[in-house]
């Protein structure tokens, strides 16, 4: 099918899947060791090779070391997190407040990946029908970086509990530049065997077979695919 | 830094980077060979292990084989693409019309990855300040699948030139389910050495050093990082 020189060796293929299955959203295990520049450069290059609508490449990368800046972002998080906690009552509220949801000051480096919504001019190829595909492209860059970080032994945590307008103010972003992903980055003491929210009893992984459909929403997925999915080895907590 | 059993072997790490750098948005190189169920199952499992806000896992996967359904989607593409082409005049317009931008009927399988905006209830952890993080999470699943496909020798093309409301109609999606990514999937005759839009002279890759900043938008990135990035080997057209 594919020609030989396009084939991955078993170890290469295993490396990709390992990064996918062992990647974690890290909040609590950061070590203070600095991130070497050559490693950081490889992560940024991985992000920059994400696909983007119309080859727009709408991303910029803010490398945030300043503790003053990070304290300002942490203050935004604290305010937003207090407001979010009010949605949960009783035992669920207690559990929410016990969760550690960011490593802004614990990690040696913060990284904001932004989306410049005006890059490439007013008519970006492929963006006419779905205007937010620039944001979607930037997400693909985030995932490339996240996986490369795992392969380099680095943890990444995405802090989404922060008002984007206020964050844009702290980072002095110009109009039209959206702070899509505020990430904490660093070496870690360990990668947890399963997602932290699952381990904490907050929410569990859904069975994949329940998420498969056929030609339309109301059509069943082909039985052979359902059987193949049901026969996969579980990946969480399996190593 | 990281403990030994968390380290990737050089071949594992190379496999991840290879998938990242050799992944392409495929439109023209699809082969008709069917995608084996066990391979498809691994791709879906890879997608399902993407991170998601509050462990929301908002995605569903529609496996679209029906040629009637695909012809209906192709008709939506044709209409949207005609409208988009009007944005470009003269030589640019000619060039636009020569680009092949989808493989809906050429590929053996179409796959729509949707985002259920109501999954997990009204207050999903981490989504309070950035409501669209459910869409962003679904993008991360798309990228996992795209990379896994490359490692399995399969090409993927994302068709964004289609009105999402009309597409939701064709696929009978219920209210609140957004057709985030309409993908064409299949084995390919080759993976091009560089992105098709670059090869076609539409738009080139931006220099990464120009996208790096420091603690704020107006602060320069650290010189040591800029130097490390400038010293990276180029990845396009290098294999």
From TrEMBL, chains A, B:
Source organism, top-level taxon: Bacteria
Sorted UniProt keywords: Flavoprotein, FMN, Oxidoreductase
GO molecular function: 5,6-dimethylbenzimidazole synthase activity
Stretches assigned to the Nitroreductase domain: 21-187
InterPro entries reported for this sequence: BluB (IPR012825), Nitroreductase (IPR029479), Nitroreductase-like (IPR000415), Nitroreductase/BluB (IPR050627)
Entry EC number(s): 1.13.11.79
NCBIfam families associated with the record: BluB
Name this protein carries in UniProt: 5,6-dimethylbenzimidazole synthase
Gene source species: Parahaliea aestuarii
Lineage: Bacteria, Pseudomonadati, Pseudomonadota, Gammaproteobacteria, Cellvibrionales
């Amino acid at each position: 099918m594919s020609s030989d020189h396009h084939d991955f060796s078993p170890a290469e293929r295993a490396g990709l899947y390992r990064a996918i299955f062992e990647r974690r959203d890290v909040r609590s295990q950061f070590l203070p060791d600095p991130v070497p520049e050559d490693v950081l450069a490889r992560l940024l290059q991985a992000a920059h090779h994400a696909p983007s609508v119309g080859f727009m490449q709408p991303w910029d990368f803010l490398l945030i070391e300043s503790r003053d800046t990070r304290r300002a972002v942490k203050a935004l998080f604290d305010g937003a997190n207090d407001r979010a906690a009010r949605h949960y009552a009783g035992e669920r509220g207690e559990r929410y407040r016990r969760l550690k949801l960011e490593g802004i000051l614990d990690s040696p480096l913060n990284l904001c990946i932004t989306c410049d919504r005006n890059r490439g001019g007013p008519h970006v190829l492929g963006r006419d029908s779905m205007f937010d595909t620039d944001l979607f492209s930037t997400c693909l860059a985030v995932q490339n970086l996240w996986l490369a970080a795992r392969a380099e032994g680095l943890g990444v945590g995405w802090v989404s509990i922060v008002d984007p307008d206020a964050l844009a103010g702290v980072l002095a972003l110009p109009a039209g530049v959206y702070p899509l992903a505020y990430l904490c980055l660093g070496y870690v003491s360990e990668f947890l065997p399963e997602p932290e929210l699952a381990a904490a009893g907050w929410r569990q992984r859904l069975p994949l077979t329940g998420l498969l459909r056929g030609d339309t929403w109301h059509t069943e997925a082909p039985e052979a695919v359902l059987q193949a999915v049901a026969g996969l080895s579980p990946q969480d907590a399996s190593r």
